[in-house]
């Protein structure tokens, strides 16, 4: 069942949970996420990040994402993650995406506001929702950089009062906030400031807060984030890593002299990702408390 991000955030708010939002830059990851959500009977967001365009073009993976979401028995939102240009957002909307993220976090505040307003007006033509970002997680969605979350001069924490002004001016449906997470692999434990989430929610009229850089955060910290008001959690790096680990184990288990088939590897990778996604989704929905 294909729904918008706004509808998904209403579900999350009603249940007081966070919905997992997973990048699906190939068929195996898409199958893993939707199968995990179906088995757990939980709503889910599948997304394509603009920085993954080199991995698989939006025009190739997008229609498949939309079609499988329509056929799913659980609520599914098809979301564009970290869209950097309005032109790219429009391409996703034309393909049937029900939500887009305009990422103007590296721009000055006023330019971010103006571009986000244009993104909201654009998405409205398709009845789609908009997520935007204020503050910066530092590393980009591809996981570039050391991933420590420390001594990152590009990291800018979200100002709750500015966030309230930003939400009022732009009319967005969800706000990605910077409160201590970082994209990519963590080499040291992140130091999360949950009061930022609580203050953003309070100042901005209960806006659904989005947590980027979710991979590597402990279950206890995820629980605290959800309790503070996070309603969407982006998750990809550790899911992708789980697939790679499973593929490597499959290859290592092949006996000397026996053929190793590509189909064996992708099946193992898909199951490895599915297992990791189920664990993450259960944590976001507070099923493991």
Automatic annotation (TrEMBL):
Its cofactor is Zn(2+). GO terms for biological process: carbohydrate metabolic process. It comes from the Bacteria. Dihydroxyacetone phosphate binds at residues 184, 213-215, 234-237. Keywords: Metal-binding, Zinc. Zn(2+) 2 binds at residues 103, 133. InterPro entries: Aldolase_TIM (IPR013785), Class_II_FBP_aldolase (IPR050246), FBA_II (IPR000771). One of its GO terms (molecular function) is aldehyde-lyase activity. The active site is at 81 (proton donor). This is Class II fructose-bisphosphate aldolase. PANTHER family: D-TAGATOSE-1,6-BISPHOSPHATE ALDOLASE, D-TAGATOSE-1,6-BISPHOSPHATE ALDOLASE SUBUNIT GATY-RELATED. Binds 2 Zn(2+) ions per subunit. One is catalytic and the other provides a structural contribution. The keyword Zinc applies. The keyword Magnesium does not apply. It comes from Candidatus Egerieimonas intestinavium. Zn(2+) 1 binds at residues 82, 183, 212.
């Amino acid at each position: 069942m294909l729904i918008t991000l706004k509808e998904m955030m209403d579900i999350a708010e009603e249940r007081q949970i966070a919905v997992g939002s997973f990048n699906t830059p190939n068929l195996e990851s898409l199958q893993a996420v939707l199968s995990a959500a179906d088995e757990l009977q939980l709503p889910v967001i599948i997304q394509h990040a603009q920085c993954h365009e080199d991995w698989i073009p939006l025009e190739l993976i997008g229609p498949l994402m939309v079609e499988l979401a329509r056929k799913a028995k659980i609520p599914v939102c098809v979301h564009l993650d970290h869209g950097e240009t309005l032109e790219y957002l429009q391409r996703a909307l034309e393909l049937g995406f029900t939500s887009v993220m305009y990422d103007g976090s590296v721009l000055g505040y006023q330019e971010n506001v103006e571009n986000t307003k244009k993104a909201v007006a654009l998405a409205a033509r398709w009845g789609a929702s908009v997520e935007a970002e204020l503050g910066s997680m530092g590393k980009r969605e591809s996981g570039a950089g050391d991933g420590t979350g420390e001594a990152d001069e590009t990291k800018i924490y979200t100002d709750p009062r500015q966030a309230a002004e930003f939400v009022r001016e732009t009319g967005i449906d969800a706000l990605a906030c910077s409160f201590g997470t970082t994209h990519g692999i963590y080499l040291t434990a992140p130091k999360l400031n949950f009061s930022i989430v609580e203050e953003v929610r309070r100042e901005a009229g209960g806006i659904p807060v989005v947590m980027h850089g979710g991979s590597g955060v402990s279950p206890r910290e995820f629980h605290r984030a959800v309790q503070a008001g996070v309603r969407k959690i982006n998750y990809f790096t550790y899911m992708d890593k789980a697939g790679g680990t499973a593929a490597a184990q499959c290859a290592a288990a092949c006996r000397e002299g026996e053929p190793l088939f590509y189909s064996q590897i992708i099946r193992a990778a898909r199951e490895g990702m599915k297992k990791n996604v189920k664990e993450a989704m259960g944590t976001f929905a507070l099923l493991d408390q």
